[in-house]
């Protein structure tokens, strides 16, 4: 979406004015383009464990330029720190101080990625302290990065190595422009399931994907990205949105299903449509959602119940239908929200529904996993939509001052990219998790 402030702030005159006035200085983020390099420069691998050596080999195999020492002046496209061998907090010092000077060479849109083991209460306290320390290091560093660079981590559960398809899938996602607005987040890989796509530009080739709430906004962006990535899309929305829905479906060469997701038989209708029209169902994106904001002191039953019905209860019911049908390998992604994590004034109903999604996804993982599939959530933060575009120019610029390092909202496209990754076979070892797409901010809808 065209953004006046971003255009202004990146113009010649705008850049100097923005600097003088101390206004936010957003840059155009590095987003996915077919055929573009995975990263904008060489990759520095930090770490001395066998996994670090394995990573170097892997990246070379992907055709990347890999360095193990930060020599020369050339820009670095990414710094990947392998920290799987931490035994105590003192082990953090060497990698932190190796990353430090390299940061000056990080290219615009660059990436800093940690690969570590998640802390657990079964660890020795010093081990857990060091492992948990990685999250604080990375999240703080992500706040310090500029020029559209981001910092994220991959947590490999005990026994999971870089040969796990989802370890590689998560690494490719985080290195690439697909993760432009994912910042300060950790992707945990707990299984060896899944597979990397034979064509990285068509990771969903041959898949049939249902997107609810596809007539506009984030849902329409999801339909477009899933189609771009190779999927056949079934676009679902309420009959009242029929015209807009047909437009989206035509654009992506998919089919429409006019359906209120709160209908008791919504799940079976979706299965029936996908199988009759396309012969299969591989992916469901639970995107349909509503807000009915009111302070709790002024809340009424209609506002509370409708939000819970659309945003959460419909998903629980549809998921049961999908499980009852035993669809093999079904992958689902639900829309949560940063409001379900940090809370938001006026959104007790919405926050409850979105926190509920996070709980539901965690508790549904085993059942979908048993069928060879999986379920995850994406929690968008401040996403620039038609709604935020109407906020006056000055207010929007001021609002961005409190958005951390990226100094801008995300786009529906950014949410869609994360969803497409989680829906793909490359995320087969990621199950029951929630990934924030929030530019490291907890402000949002
Ligand atoms: P939107 O209002 O622009 O679009 C939602 C779509 O869902 C509409 O087309 C609507 O007709 C459809 N829908 C609503 N109720 C339905 C029902 N009962 N059955 C079928 N379809 C129904 O919203 P959006 O901003 O694109 O948000 C999409 C999702 O992302 C929602 O779940 C929302 O909660 C979540 N989200 C959005 C933001 C944001 O910044 N926009 C942030 C966090 C989370």
Brief summary of the model shown:
The chain has 445 residues and is an alpha/beta fold. Helices cover 41% and strands 16% of the residues. The mean pLDDT is 94.
Features:
single chain; 445 residues; alpha/beta; Rossmann fold; 7-stranded parallel beta sheet; 6-stranded parallel beta sheet; 15 helices; 13 strands; 41% helix; 16% strand; binds nicotinamide-adenine-dinucleotide
Would you write up a description of this structure?
It is built from 15 helices and 13 strands. The chain is of the alpha/beta class. The strands form two sheets. Strands 9-8-7-10-11-12-13 form a seven-stranded parallel beta sheet, with helices on both faces. Helix 7 (217-228) packs across helix 15 and helix 9 (266-278) crosses helix 10. The longest helix has 25 residues, at 301-325. The chain is globular. The mean pLDDT is 94. Bound molecules: nicotinamide-adenine-dinucleotide. Residues 212-213, 215-219, 237-238, 241, 260-262, 287-290, 310, 335, 337, 380, 383, 385, 444-445 line the site of nicotinamide-adenine-dinucleotide.
The count of DSSP E runs of length 2 or more, i.e. the number of strands, is 13
Task: Give the name of the CATH architecture of the largest domain.
Answer: 3-Layer(aba) Sandwich
The outline comes out as: globular
* CATH homologous superfamily placement of the largest domain: NAD(P)-binding Rossmann-like Domain
Radius of gyration: 22 Å
Order of strands across the main sheet? 9-8-7-10-11-12-13
CATH fold call of the largest domain? Rossmann fold
Number of helices, where a helix is a run of at least 4 consecutive DSSP H or I residues: 15
| C-alpha termini separation | 18 Å
Q: What series of H and E elements makes up the topology?
A: HHEHEEHEHEHEEHEHEHEHEHHEHHHE
């Amino acid at each position: 979406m065209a953004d006046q402030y971003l255009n202004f702030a990146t113009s010649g005159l705008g850049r100097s004015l923005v600097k003088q006035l101390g206004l936010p200085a957003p840059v155009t983020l590095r987003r996915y383009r077919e055929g573009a390099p995975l990263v904008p420069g060489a990759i520095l691998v930090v770490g001395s464990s066998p996994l670090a050596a394995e990573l170097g080999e892997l990246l070379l195999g992907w055709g990347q330029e890999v360095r193990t020492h930060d020599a020369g002046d050339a820009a670095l496209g990414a710094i990947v720190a392998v920290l799987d061998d931490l035994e105590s907090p003192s082990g953090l010092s060497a990698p932190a101080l190796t990353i430090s000077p390299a940061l000056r060479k990080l290219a615009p849109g660059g990436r800093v990625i940690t690969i570590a083991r998640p802390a657990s209460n079964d660890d020795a306290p010093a081990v857990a302290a060091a492992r948990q320390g990685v999250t604080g290091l990375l999240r703080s560093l992500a706040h310090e990065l500029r020029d559209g660079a981001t910092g994220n981590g991959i947590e490999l559960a005990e026994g999971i190595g870089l040969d796990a398809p989802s370890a590689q899938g998560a690494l490719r996602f985080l290195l690439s422009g697909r993760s432009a607005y994912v910042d300060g987040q950790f992707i945990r890989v707990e299984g060896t399931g899944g597979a990397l796509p034979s064509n990285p530009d068509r990771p969903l080739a041959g898949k049939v994907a249902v997107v609810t709430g596809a007539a506009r906004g984030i849902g329409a962006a999801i339909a477009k990205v899933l189609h771009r990535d190779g999927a056949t899309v079934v676009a679902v929305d309420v009959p009242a949105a029929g015209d807009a829905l047909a437009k989206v479906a035509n654009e992506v060469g998919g089919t429409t299903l006019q359906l209120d997701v709160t209908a008791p038989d919504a799940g079976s209708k979706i299965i029936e449509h996908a199988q009759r029209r396309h012969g299969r169902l591989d992916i469901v994106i639970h995107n349909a959602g509503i807000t009915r904001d009111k302070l709790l002191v002024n809340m009424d039953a209609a506002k509370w119940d409708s939000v819970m019905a659309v945003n959460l209860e419909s998903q629980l019911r549809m998921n049961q239908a999908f499980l009852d049908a035993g669809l093999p390998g079904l992958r689902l992604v639900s829309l949560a929200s940063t409001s379900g994590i940090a809370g938001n004034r006026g959104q007790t109903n919405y926050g409850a529904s979105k926190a509920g999604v996070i709980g539901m996804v965690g508790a549904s993982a085993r059942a979908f996993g048993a069928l060879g599939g999986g379920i995850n959530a994406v929690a968008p933060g401040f996403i620039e939509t038609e709604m935020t575009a109407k906020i006056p120019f000055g207010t929007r610029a001021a609002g961005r001052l409190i958005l951390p390092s990226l100094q801008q909202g995300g786009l529906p496209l950014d949410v869609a990219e994360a969803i497409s990754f989680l829906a793909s076979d490359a995320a087969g070892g990621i199950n029951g998790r929630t990934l924030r797409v929030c530019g490291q901010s907890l402000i949002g809808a």
